[in-house]
């Protein structure tokens, strides 16, 4: 029988990271207008969001500036133009950018913190790239940034490899290690096992554990709550769940769930009311049937994205048959 | 550390009830064509669904047959016309109808099982109607039906009242008691507490516990899994989540999750591909922002439904302010 009702209280150490501009940029090649990016920032500040991830520090040589918008590269001059007035002390909000192992010219793209508006560098990698990720984390840490390690596609990595990766990360100065369900494939008990594994591996280091969930099975918010219940203190979300494929945990639902009075849901609703109709007209994301299928098959949503962009998009049965045959 | 991976095995006693025609009928006043109802039935059979709930046994005096389709009343002649060939032995599927306490002329509307195509009567009630529900359950049981008790809107009922209601139901012949989150307001730990409460109250009776979740907070599937993990053996779902307001746990996602090889997802995908576009054109449901808000405020979705039907539907900020002021 219930002894307490923790869902009406809160942990002050629990912090929200909104990655609308970063993860959402995977839907539109980061072709966001300056005005839109600025509105997301202002919404984050007004809503009491703790971290705002604005894009990638990925290499222009790999992501052609003719095709990809400036937040794919997060050039410092551009960031200064957008967020030159940024003051984390005043707003309580820190700015973050992500750098992908293998895709970032991080030694030149990441500059000393004093020269940047960024406060946090999030390093993303696949398990086999963990050694480069560790170097990147040390590099960014030494330049003065708060850092995280986001090991992606964790649902297809063996437990032995996860253990090994966590051992490597344990010795880095990463402040947070994020459980990343890139395929939106994990069920509650799997989230539990992973969170406990990360907690066990990082015990005594003071590192926080984060959760980054995708919505292929309509579980992004649920799995985020689950990780929070188990003690994760960093939760990723995006406005309206905007993000590649099925999208993410919606910031508006997460903030409405958290009981810390510092969070305010109304500015987010205001943003969504003004901006969402135009975005929905241009971009498609959310837990559509093809994403349900790739999630359940524990594969990258790429096949579903391509199918939905093809002339066959409405023939979901053919997509199902293809995936069943392919895996 | 994980000792087992129950998510890749299954419990044979776990059964799925599809209530697309019953709960979905709350979106369109049960104005389904015979052809559509028949297709839902055939999809259920092909997918290995255990129970199909086809509508309500509610009184025509309250639900005018000029306005409400025949599945609001489930007249036996009509059911025979639709499902005259129904054979639960052959298909493995049982047909169910719901009767609401206070809204059903159950003494005349429910006929002996031998005269009906129905196998199951599900009795729905609010907590204060539990005594009439108990009479209805006994009546239907004596006529030969399998019976359930669905106590609705449980998120606004005090624990003492729930205990009292369960004490009453414990003494009835109800085969299943369903945890019903009518407002889609419950979070994981609340589901846990309720399921444990029901289990404790009904221990030793052999009654099964069911789960009926709504999707206001994108938690319908997650809360359904949660109840299943805790031992519930009856799970309600609807095709594409079709249901009042934010809708329900989607049958296609639930069936894709369950590992019992008797369930087949492909016929459901086929149904959705053929039927969903036309339904989506006419009807609106799903976890839209106004439903997120009523879910988080733990109120009936009625206010959101009315708002979405009004000229002000796009002014979600005004809706938020209204709900904040009203509660």
Which descriptors would you attach to this protein?
2 domains; 14 helices; TIM Barrel; alpha/beta; eight-stranded parallel barrel; 327 residues; 41% helix; homodimer; 13% strand; globular
Low-confidence stretches of chain A: none
Number of DSSP-assigned strands of chain A: 8
Question: Which range does the strand content of chain A fall in?
Answer: 5-15%
- CATH class of the largest domain in chain A reads Alpha Beta
CATH topology of the largest domain in chain A: TIM Barrel
Q: Using a beta-carbon cutoff below 8 angstroms, give the protein chain pair with the largest interface and the number of residues from each chain.
A: A-B, 47 and 47 residues
H/E series of chain A, N to C? EHHEHHEHEHEHEHEHEHHHHH
Assembly status? homodimer
Briefly say what this structure is.
2 copies of one chain form a homodimer. Chain A has 327 residues and is of the alpha/beta class. In chain A, 41% of the residues lie in helices and 13% in strands.
